[in-house]
Amino acid sequence: MRNWGSWARLLPGDWLVILAGIVVVAFAYATLWSSSPAGKVRIHSGDRIFATFSLNQDRIVEVPGPIGISRITIHHHQARFESSPCSNQYCVHQGWLSKAGQVAVCLPNRVSVELLGDKGYDSLNY
Amino acid sequence: MTPLIIKTTQRDHEVARLAAFAIVLHLAEAVMPTPLPGVKPGIANVITLYVLHRYDFVTAAWVSLLRVFAVSLLFGNFLTPTFVLSLSGAIASLLALSLAMHLPKRWFGPVSHSIFAAFAHIAGQLIIVRLWLIPSAGLAYLVPVFATFALLFGTLNGLIAAKLLAAESTGETQ
Fold first, then answer.
1. What is the distance between the alpha carbons of residues B114 and B85, in angstroms, rounded to a whole number?
2. Domain contains A83
3. Residue A53: beta bridge partners?
4. Which pLDDT tens digit goes with each residue over B120-137?
5. B174 in a domain, yes or no?
6. DSSP character for B94?
7. Which of B73, B77, B156, B171 lies at a 20 to 30 A Cα distance from A12?
8. Percent of chain B with pLDDT over 70
9. Domain at A55, CATH number
10. Is A14–B112 a contact, with Cβ atoms under 8 angstroms apart?
């Protein structure tokens, strides 16, 4: 029962791993919790881009897919699946999307809605 | 009709004894309230780490998987999503440990192994959740939270395992 006061010493590699872990966690917060407001919404159907709309204009988009038509609503700078012909309705229950990077997918109907940031670059040339 | 006799070796008894320790720790943890659903310290993994250092990888895998099966039977969630998540986490952890254990021992101790295992655990579970249970990209928002706790509890469990191993080796030499 001796030296319970002194914790098992950490080896140099352990400190390295802890540090790397902190970097990974910080990176995860930085990339996945970026809350920049979205400016545009891009709708995919199958493997193609169906359309890209600005979030500034309210509209209802009807996107045809293999099992029917998914209705996507754009309203007050937000977008959501209003209805979809899938059985599980995950896409509809996901609700309103408002931040850049958010995605709602209806896998059965192969339709996805993705919010894009305002300042995103389409391409960069040097 | 002759009675069926299963012959057990000394090693079987050893594995069972170690798995029993892990099961008790797992059960004790299960009755503790958690700040977030899905976030648990995974204190039973201390036993896995301990076995990995004192015995070998195969014994550690036995102890870890036996615990997952036994606990699921005790809680009655065998073959439910809870069990599948528990198993996928355990398998991912073991895969990470099987790689991490080959890191040079002079530089990397149980804390490193524990952190790798913790991250692998949550990664394995999240992959199953994403592919099977909640196929939604919204899950990505939970990743940083889970990663934070993986680092925190991975470090803590590693420290406890390191302390346990150190205390035992000093006890043996004196």
1. 19
2. yes
3. A41
4. 999 999 999 888 877 766
5. no
6. H
7. B171
8. 95
9. 2.60.320.10
10. yes
User: What total number of domains does chain A contain?
Assistant: 1
Closest CA of chain B from A125, distance in Å? 30
Task: Classify the complex by whether its ipTM is higher than 0.85, answering yes or no.
Answer: yes
Taking an 8 Å cut-off on Cβ atoms, the answer to whether A107 and B165 are in contact is no
- The CATH number that applies at residue B35 is 1.10.1760.20
Residue B18 lies in a domain: yes
Q: Which residues of B touch A102 (CB under 8 A)?
A: 137-138
Which tokens hold the place of B120? 């692998």
- In B, residues 137-166, which contact A (CB 8 Å cutoff)? 137-138, 140-141, 143-144, 147-148, 150-151, 154-155, 158-159, 162-163, 165-166
Residues in chain B closer than 8 A to A44 (CB atoms): none
Q: Could you tell me if residue B173 is inside a domain?
A: no
Task: Report the domain count for chain B.
Answer: 1
Q: Tell me which of A3, A4, A11, A105 to substitute to probe the interface with B (most B C-beta atoms closer than 10 Å).
A: A11
Question: Tens digits of per-residue pLDDT, A50-61?
Answer: 999 999 999 999
Which member of A18, A28, A90 has the closest CB to residue B136?
Answer: A90
Query: Tokens 């990505």 sit at which residue?
Result: B140
Model confidence over A27-72: pLDDT tens digits? Answer: 999 888 877 778 889 998 888 889 999 999 999 999 999 999 999 9
pLDDT of residue A9: 74
Whether A27 is in a domain gets the answer: no
Picking from A81, A85, A49, the residue whose alpha carbon sits closest to that of residue A67 is A85
Task: Please state the separation of Cα A11 from the chain's center in Å.
Answer: 38
Structural domain range at position A83: 38-117
Q: Is residue A20 part of a domain?
A: no
How large a percentage of chain A has pLDDT more than 70? 86
